[in-house]
Amino acid sequence: MNTEHPFHAGLGEITPELQSRLDELARDPATKSKPDSLTSAQRAVLFDIASLQVKAKRTFGESLGDSLGRSEAWWVTRLGLQQSTHHRVARLKASWMGDSVVADVCCGLGSDLIALAQRGIVVGLDIDSDVLAFAAANLRVGGVTGSLQSLDVTTTSPDRIVGDAEYLHLDPDRRANGHRHTDADDLVPSWDRVCELVARSRGGIVKLAPATRLPDEMDRDWHRTWISTSGSVREQSAITGGVLDHPWLKEHAMVAGNRSAITIRDETALVFVPTTDAGSTQQVDGKGIGEWIIDPDASIRAAGLTEAFARETGSRLIDAASGFLTCERIDEASTSLLMAMTARVIDVIGCDDRKLRKYFRARDGYPEIIKVRGGDVDPGKLARRLKDCGSNPLGLWISRQGKRTYAAVTEMPHGTAAFPG
Q: Could you tell me which residue, 215 or 388, shows the higher pLDDT?
């Protein structure tokens, strides 16, 4: 594919002039009525792309033009954005590939492709030539270069797909036939096909939805990690082969056959991997809510590591459904607690509006942060109802313990999970 001036079926050649018009529409939607040489169909497509730029900027990050003081828009579609990788996650994964040649299989709009191109040679593969046209345009917007090929990864020979690549990054379609799939065998390409391709290379990373299940017999060959940023779990990454030899992964004991959780704040990645002796860690005795309440990062919950996290931090589950933990004291030197929101408990009271309003008024306080887990309380509406109760910010944690719904009032929470960036 011509990556300098890629061709899109609905727009024609994506020229610098077309980029400039998209940038203009993204900055000022009112310019839609401005006379230009575009057809009405072209203008409609550009206007739709321009309307997606807020989300596109959150996903793809800054463009090269943004860093130079001139705003440039990303080439995106609504469906493509749903499967695009957040730029922080993409950069972290790309760093595990070193400077090796990488094939980005099912590259889509190119968010992973851009990160991979920033560290070395990459070729992007996808069946949809229009998607590849946008990926080519996004490489230019990102200020990087890469080659692109249009092919069907389900039928093309593995040797042609892998080519000269040492490693593969694969992003199978999780929305085939208009449905979200969580079984690896329902992905396109299928999990068997993914394994066939990876076997022709030195190793790879497969991007999966957080809830995707792998065949049990495959767990021993892959390290599975769940990655969050900006308060949300973005993906599950399955890593295998030589990629696991990267020093950063080895430093964090991320090996085949186990799982981990990662949260990224700005450009810093925090990792939780259960230690081999986690089962022997003594937990605090007692029942009910202790002096401290703890909420592990969403990546830990998604990875199914909440109980392991409790063992490593000397805490216990309040209720399995909520995922909240509690303990009588916290170890401020614990690096694991960097991946949690923690707060000192002031009181535990009944959860109804009358009791809550009375309580917060008596303390001249209001809930600055409300966490609800396992209940039907709307935290936004509750915050508005309690906002006028006082001036001192407090935390409010609502969940269930058995059949009882509780409200734990705390000091203001702290920790990296308290203020997702």
A: 388
Could you report the per-residue pLDDT of 29-42, keeping only the tens digit for each? 998 888 888 998 99
pLDDT at 421: 31
Domain holding 53, by residue range, is 7-79
Task: Quote the distance between the C-alpha of residue 386 and its chain's center.
Answer: 32
Q: How many CB atoms are closer than 10 A to CB 397?
A: 28
Residue at 135 is within a domain: yes
Burial class of residue 94 (count of CB atoms within 10 Å of its CB; 0-12, 13-18, 19+) = buried
- Of 33, 57, 79, the residue that ends a domain is 79
Distances (CA, A) of 312 to 16, 142, 344: 55, 41, 19
The amino acid at 88? R
Q: Are 136 and 73 in the same domain?
A: no
Residue 234 has pLDDT above 90, yes or no: yes
- Selection from 287, 358, 283, 349 nearest residue 313 by Cα: 283
345/363 same-domain check: yes
pTM of the prediction? 0.91
Residues 114 and 231 placed together within one structural domain of the fold: yes
* Helices H / strands E in the chain, number of each: 15, 18
**Which residues fall within 8 angstroms of residue 333, CB to CB, at 6 or more apart?**
none
* Mean pLDDT in residue range 111-139: 97
Kindly list the distances between the CA atom of residue 385 and the CA atoms of 356, 362, 389, in Å, as whole numbers in the listed order.
10, 16, 9
| Greatest alpha-carbon span in the chain | 74
With cut-offs at 50, 70 and 90, classify the pLDDT of residue 321.
Answer: confident
Same domain? 58 vs 141: no
**Are both 196 and 250 inside the same structural domain?**
yes
For 144-167, write each residue's pLDDT tens digit.
999 999 999 999 999 999 999 999
Which of 185, 174, 113, 181 minimizes the C-alpha distance to 149?
113
336 shares a domain with 267: no
Indicate the SS3 state at residue 52: coil
The CA dihedral of 144, 149, 153, 157, to the nearest 10 degrees, is -120
Q: Based on the domain organization, do 249 and 297 belong to the same domain?
A: no
- Statement: residue 414 has pLDDT above 90: no
Is the domain of 351 the same as that of 399? yes
